[in-house]
Structures are given as C-alpha cells and as structure tokens.
C-alpha cells in the first residue's frame, strides 16, 4: 500500500485485519493496489465500545457482572472530548482479567427510552451496571488511565471474606463502621448482602464470613451486623446493630442507611451526604486522634439529649469546625474560637442556628422550640438597600419573600455573581428591559447576588447568570428562563408567560442583540 499527500491513521488491528480511517488533507492522491483514488476513502473503524440501543440494552447489560455505560449526544462537546479516552480505556479493559466491557447509548437516536429510564439529563453521563441492574454513577476521572484504574477497582470483590477471629478483629479496628455478613456458603441472603455491598462500596466497608468458628464465637448466623468504630462506643446505645430479616437487598440497604451512624454520628466532608435531613449538627473541635477524651466529652452531652428525642424525625451528628468553616461562616458563626455551635438543617433547605451558649439544658430547649415550630429560619442576607426604586429591583435574602413571592406580582429574577463575565455583559440589557416594562404595574424585574444571599431551594442555581420567572399565581413552581438574552426576547417571553396580558408602546422594531443564552 502506498499513501501520498493524504492524512491517514491506523486505528487498530481487529479480527486480524488493519482498519484505517483516511482523510484527503491536501491536493495529493492515494494509490492503493495500483488504483488511483482522489476521493475520500474510509475503511470500517473497529471499536471496543459496545453501541447499545433501546432494543439491545437489556440483553447486553443483563449478562455482565459489571459494565460501564456512557449516555451521550453526538453534538456534545464534552462527549467528543471523552470519546478517544473512552475508546482507549475500552481497549485496555477488554483484555483485563476478567474483561470489563464499556458501552455507550446515543440519547438522541435509538437510545432515547433508555436515557429517559435512567434519568439522564446532561451529557456525557456515565453509569455502572452490575448483572443488569444500575449500581451507581461513575465518580472517577475522565481520562483513559483514570477510567481503567477506577473500573478495575470497581470490579474487585466488594466484601472481604473473613476466615478467622483474628482476621475479623483486625477488620474491626477500622475508624469507620464495618458491616459484616454471617452466612452459610450458599445462603440466599448472602446474595442479597453482596448486592448491597456493591451498591454501597464507595461509602462503607463490608466483610462476610461462613466460618463456623467465627459465627459460633460472635453468636450470629444468617444475619448482617453493623459494628460501630470503637471510638464511638458509648453507654447510650449498643455497639452494634443486627439485621436478621430475610427481606431483599432494598431493606438491607435501608437498614444500613438508617442505622450505620448510630444515634450521633461523626459527620465529615466526605460522608456529609449520608446524613439525611432533617439533621442537627453540633460543631466543635472534633479530634479523635489527639483528643479523643475531650471529643467524647461533648459527644456524650449530645447523646444524652438525643436519647430524649428518639421518637422525633431527626438525625444527630457532631462535626469538626475545621471541616465546615465555609458553612459556619455562611450562618454567622466564627470558626476560630472554642465555642460549640449548633445548626439544624431541615429537609426543605431551611437552617436554624442555636444562639445561646451550648449546654445540655439550652440544647434541649432549642430542639423543643424547633419541634414546636417556634424558631425562625436563619437567612444569609446582605443589608436591605435603603433605596430600591430603580428599573431593576435589588433583592437580598431578607427581602426575597417580600419581593419575589409577592402574590400580586409576576417577577423575573436574575441570580448572578459579581465576578461572572456573562452577568456583567447582561447587566445593561437587563437594565434596559427594566426600563421598558417599568410601567407594567404587575411585572417586576429583579436581581440577587446568589453568592452573598441564601437562594430558596425552589430556585435551583447551578451557574451564573440563572434567570427564573415567578408568576403571581404559582410561586411554588418558578419557571427557569432558557431563551436568548436580548431585550426583545425577554419582552416576548414576558408577554407570553405573564398572568395578565400587556402591550408596550410601539417604538419600531429593534434589531436583536447577538447576546445569546450562553451559560457557565
């Protein structure tokens, strides 16, 4: 084969044949086996990434112990960047022992139903499946080496098999909870246990045993036991929790999530998401390495109070002020003092801070007030503007309800960050919009610095600027604006969505600005 003045790349050898992708970069020609070609020539490209559709997804995934699936869109820039890395990882993992297959689903064509089923809302989304069931989202890096390393680790046995008491005791020296299954070798509950271990492998430590010696010594059989770390043992609760049901992995997982941290867990930046709200967190200088006695002095006081509220829906935790400096600053606490701080985070996103000095009695009173709905949520807020008569109303945390949730007004609100370039570009356009509709009595154009004020949870802000429309008759379900960012487009949107129709004085059609809906 002779190739002249043409770009070409040998991709790989597949099924014993070379596969080429050839592009005519210049004016030259390509001579293959004596034939002169001046047209683009492309041989079939061999890929180790399995392409799945709605029709083939189940049958392909069902038979695999583990499989990584990429959900993508052909036009997505991040997907294009990932493609060669993903392909290289697939080739390397194909020859792993055992092989780990990588697959992909086009969410714009034959895989729309599958993408919808698994809640794919952005591209690329990577998910791990085990034996046909969704296991977890991929959390590794997106280069080939990172994908290979992460997936090899995922393919390792999740639960360590324990054969002797010495092994078990060594395992229980862990500074986090250890979840141990006690089963006969072919016990059905063991299969359920291993399923849960796979699902929670990133967050918890698992082990299992079929040793008669170990089961006899511990007194457990056909059971799953959560052993708490020794430094968290206390007189206020058992040092282990036992699950003896024969239910499915769903109930085993639920049991772990509800009991693994005990009555008062140790929250860290790594496990914070495991504490479901509402959660009451007591922040102080937590240090189990250098000051375990001092740390448990405060934890035992929290435990004492927590025992009195066991019948209430509330999780309790202690946490180091060092790990949560930013959060504590946001709720108005100092982070460099010796004070013990308490914050309740409710499931609706509200925060309640205890302002009295910590003591058992004050802590108990604070919780009682919370359960009696006698506390006012803490709202991070800038100072209320002394004057606010401009075309764009300035909203702060303390005035959000008054301005944005005004039942007599339709409100278009921009959430911005002072450092955001797109926000700065939008500012004159947004001000012009405010001027244009200022005489429409039931429409308000507003803005809020989302870095200096609390944003209510009904307004999801993940980038800047983010714009929402809050109609007067449906404040609980604001609409996220996704149109172009020029004055005419904003006006057209408001005329379409406004509760009460309105018209503006005709001043001739303006040419639309090229400002688009670019978002960070």
Question: How does this structure look, described?
Answer:
The protein has 520 residues and is α/β, with parallel strands linked by helices. It is 28% helix and 23% strand. Strand 4 and strand 5 form a beta hairpin. Helix 6 (188-199) crosses helix 8 (249-259). Its EC number is 5.3.4.1. Belongs to the protein disulfide isomerase family.
Question: Can you summarize this structure?
Answer:
The chain has 520 residues and is α/β, with parallel strands linked by helices. It contains 14 helices and 25 strands. The longest helix is centred in the N-terminal third of the chain and has 18 residues, at 77-94.
Number of strands: 25
- Show unreliable segments: 1-13, 15-44, 509-520
Roughly what fraction of the amino acids lie in strands? 15-25%
Give Rg in angstroms: 30 Å
Give the N-to-C terminal Cα separation.
49 Å
Q: What is the average per-residue confidence, as pLDDT, rounded to a whole number?
A: 88
Order of strands across the main sheet: 6-8-7-9-10
Helix residue percentage:
25-40%
Primary descriptors:
PDI_thioredoxin-like_dom, 5-stranded mixed β-sheet, 520 residues, single chain, disulfide bond, disordered N terminus, 14 helices, disordered C terminus, alpha/beta
Topology:
Blueprint lengths: L1 E2 L3 E8 L2 E7 L6 E3 L2 E3 L11 E4 L4 H6 L4 E6 L4 H18 L7 E5 L5 H6 L7 E6 L2 E5 L6 H12 L3 E4 L2 H7 L6 E5 L5 H12 L5 E5 L2 H7 L4 E5 L12 E4 L5 H11 L4 E4 L11 E6 L7 H15 L8 E6 L4 H6 L10 E5 L5 E3 L6 H12 L21 E2 L5 H4 L6 E7 L4 H17 L5 E7 L16 E5 L8 E2 L6 H11 L23
């Amino acid at each position: 084969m002779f190739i002249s003045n043409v770009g070409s790349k040998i991709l790989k050898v597949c099924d014993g044949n070379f596969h080429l992708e050839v592009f005519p970069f210049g004016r030259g020609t390509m001579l293959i086996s004596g034939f002169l070609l001046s047209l683009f020539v492309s041989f079939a490209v061999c890929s180790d990434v399995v392409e799945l559709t709605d029709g083939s997804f189940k049958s392909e995934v069902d038979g695999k112990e583990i499989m990584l699936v990429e959900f993508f869109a052909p036009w997505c820039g991040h997907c294009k960047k990932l493609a060669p890395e993903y392909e290289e990882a697939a080739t390397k993992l194909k020859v792993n022992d055992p092989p780990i297959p990588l697959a992909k689903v086009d969410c714009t064509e034959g895989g729309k139903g599958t993408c919808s089923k698994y809640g794919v809302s952005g591209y690329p989304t990577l998910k791990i499946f085990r034996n046909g069931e969704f296991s977890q989202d991929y959390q590794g890096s997106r280069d080939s080496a990172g994908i290979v390393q992460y997936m090899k680790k995922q393919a390792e046995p999740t639960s360590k098999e324990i054969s002797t008491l010495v092994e078990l005791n060594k395992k229980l020296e862990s500074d986090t909870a250890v979840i141990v299954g006690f089963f006969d070798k072919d016990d059905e509950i063991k299969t359920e246990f291993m399923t849960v271990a796979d699902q929670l492998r990133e967050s918890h430590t698992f082990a299992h045993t079929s040793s008669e010696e170990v089961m006899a010594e511990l007194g457990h059989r056909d059971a799953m036991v959560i052993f708490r770390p020794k430094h968290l043992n206390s007189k206020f609760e058992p040092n282990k929790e036992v699950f003896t049901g024969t239910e499915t992995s769903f109930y085993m997982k639920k049991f772990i999530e509800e009991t693994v941290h005990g009555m008062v867990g140790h929250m860290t930046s790594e496990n914070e998401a495991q504490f479901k709200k509402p959660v009451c967190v007591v922040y102080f200088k937590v240090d189990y390495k250098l000051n375990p006695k001092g740390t448990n002095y405060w934890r035992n006081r929290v435990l004492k109070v927590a025992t009195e509220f066991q019948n209430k829906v509330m999780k309790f935790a202690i946490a180091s002020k060092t790990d949560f400096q930013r959060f504590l600053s946001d709720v108005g606490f100092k982070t460099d003092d010796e004070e013990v701080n308490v914050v309740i985070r409710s499931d609706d996103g509200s925060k309640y801070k205890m302002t009295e000095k910590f003591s058992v009695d004050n802590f108990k009173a604070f919780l009682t007030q919370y359960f009696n709905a006698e506390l006012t949520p803490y709202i991070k807020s800038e100072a209320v503007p002394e004057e606010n008569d401009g075309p764009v109303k300035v909203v702060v945390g303390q005035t959000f309800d008054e301005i944005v949730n005004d039942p007599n007004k339709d409100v278009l609100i921009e959430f911005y960050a002072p450092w955001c370039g797109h926000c700065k570009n939008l500012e004159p356009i947004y001000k012009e919009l405010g001027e244009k509709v200022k005489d429409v009595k039931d429409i308000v154009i507003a803005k809020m610095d989302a870095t200096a004020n609390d944003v209510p949870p009904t307004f999801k802000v993940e980038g800047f600027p983010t714009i929402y429309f809050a109609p007067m008759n449906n404040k609980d379900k604001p609409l996220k604006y996704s149109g172009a960012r020029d004055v005419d487009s904003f006006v057209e949107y408001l005329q379409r969505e406004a509760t009460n129709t309105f018209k503006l004085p005709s001043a001739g059609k303006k040419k639309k600005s090229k400002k688009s809906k670019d978002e960070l």
